[in-house]
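I keep forgetting this: the sequence line spells out the residues, with the fold written below as integer tokens. I include a record here:
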Amino acid sequence: MAVAPAGPWRRPSFQRIVAMAVIVTLALAPLPATRAYAQSALPDLGDVAQVDLSPAQEKKLGDTIVRQIRAMGGYMNDPEVNDYLNDLGHRLVAAVPTPTSDFEFFAVPDSSVNAFALPGGYIGVHTGLILLTQSESELASVLGHEISHVTQHHMARSLAKQKDSMLMTLAGLALAILAARAGGSQNGDVAGGMIAATQALAIQHQINYTRENEYEADRLGFQRLDAAGFDDTAMATFMARLQKSSQFVQGNVPTYLRDHPVTYERIAEAQSRAEGHPYRQVPDSLDFQLVRALLRSYQNEPKDAVTVFDEAIAEKKYNSEIAAHYGLVASLLRAKDYKRAKTELATLEKMAPPHPMIDAMAGHVYLDSGDVNAAVKRFETALAKYPNKMQLVYDYPEALLTAGRYADAAAAAEAQLMRFPNDGPLHLTAARAYTAMNKQMMAHRHQGEYYAWQGNLRAAVDQFELAAKAGDGDFYQASVVDTRLRALRREAAEQQKSGFGRNG
């Protein structure tokens, strides 16, 4: 069972953030009464090669952005959904050899239809897009497209391509602000016109280059879709449906269409590529159906979600009967109808093959209904069968905590942290276990790691300082705390200097 999703979140426009930063910087800077400022005040961006990001820089930038996404509630802490996206995404990555397979796919708790790629191999998928897709191949076509944005380094290439337009924008804004400060309504009108003209030119330059990236991502994404064994027609089908749906919606075009403009030419090219391959009907995996049912169980009020699945089962309006019953059990848990949840779980387990998501759901039915010992046994058995399923990795120590077995919970979390050292939720579980045991150094250390994972470095430093003062750990533990505290202080100072980060 997933962690409750966060509320609606909207991804800020990267171009908007950059533009606002430039405007504020120039507006606050002291301006000499000379137009020579327009040249002297421009930052030294260096040549195009220097503007490019190295793989290490791309990874660091991506890490920083994802931390901010977590801090803003834009990272869906749902292991079931994220595990599925990573399994599907890495199947596509493995289908076509790439210089790196270091990708991380994650869900964004947002009902809008969108997906995006970040530097360093991070790919976010809005839950609205997952629910809109009508087949697993359609979802795979979107992931293949986004993977291609990463493998082709479109962020770094875009920075290099925009160098001249960025300089032009900065110069134009500097001159416009100078004109506005000179006073007079006429100068003010001139300033507004200069700002508008400069921004229009820069935006047009960006749009033209983005189209190049989109066509390239389409072509390479299709190759991945085909090589991974999915339906070749899915990309064109999904594009056409998106475009058709937008024709009947005024003022609320799907976000995906704004970020990834779909044209008849792109659809035609996708159809043409598919025509050169024999048609193959690819059945959806049970994982795809279960994840979509889980996401549907989060929608609306709990009782309404129960009604939706009850009606679908009664009228046989489902693509997968197993997934429909799974969604019903999830909805019943949200509604806290534990008695009926147990009854429906028994029905589900009779018809379904062994599956980690169903084992996790069963564990939560026992845990939430108060049968803690049964839940611990169910999670322990399931984790032994599926050691890499993160929902079970989290659930087992959490159940031990609920059972009051704090030392066992801490040991279980520490064992998993040997495998996943940077996993924030595991650090939080460990912190809670050590707090219950009154082991202050370890509790503050793990709480600090959780804050660092969130991107809140100031809070992380505070926790590690408390850990260093606790004095109830051994020499090895104290050394780890001291080393990590120095590293976090350096990182926090760098973040503060750059102005890019969350400070609490």
